[in-house]
Amino acid sequence: MVTTVNPRIRTPRAEVRERILAAALAEFARKGFVGTTIDAIADAAGFTKGAVYSNFGSKDDLFFALLDQQISRRIEAVTTLADAAATRPTVTAIGDLLMRGLLDNRDWQLLFTEYWLRALRDESVRERFVEHRRAVRAAIAEAVRRLDLETDIDPATTAVLVLALNSGLSIEEFTEPGVVPADLFGTVLQAVTAQR
């Protein structure tokens, strides 16, 4: 009798990373950054701890990968909006899109706030966080430049404004759901940027 051995099918690396990131976000949201272990993330993703470490060197690396993912998704959504529009999208439309992104990502906002507090309390964490925030602001500013919105505020300042609105509105909305009007992000951006 001939015995056949099923070849082991490897999960593509990109899929492994996505599953680990999804599991990390869920675990961080459920237990907090400090309370979450790499073992718990690995179990939730369906992989070994070694698989997590081969893709991400630490919990901090997981956080920054999640941060990159959040920023990339929002920039991509705004770019898609711009590409789909027959004319340049309005600041209000962009703000509305960003507000939907905020509302759809409560778990991320909780994790971000917790990590931000950690960065404020630990200088070594803060240094990396600050470096990364500079890169995030630069990416958003570049997206603003590409949109050519014709506002009176320069792209770098617009990036700071967008991040500040996102953080502030998330605090208010997730503390008391429904208190932030759905169009407030866009309304504030429109008023502050004085789009011509």
Automatic annotation (TrEMBL):
Pfam family membership, one: TetR_C_6
Provenance organism: Nocardia fluminea
Domain HTH tetR-type, first and last residues per copy: 14-74
Protein name per Swiss-Prot or TrEMBL: TetR family transcriptional regulator
SUPFAM superfamilies: Homeodomain-like (SSF46689), Tetracyclin repressor-like, C-terminal domain (SSF48498)
Entry GO MF terms: DNA-binding transcription factor activity; transcription cis-regulatory region binding
DNA-binding region coordinates: 37-56
Record keywords: DNA-binding, Repressor, Transcription, Transcription regulation
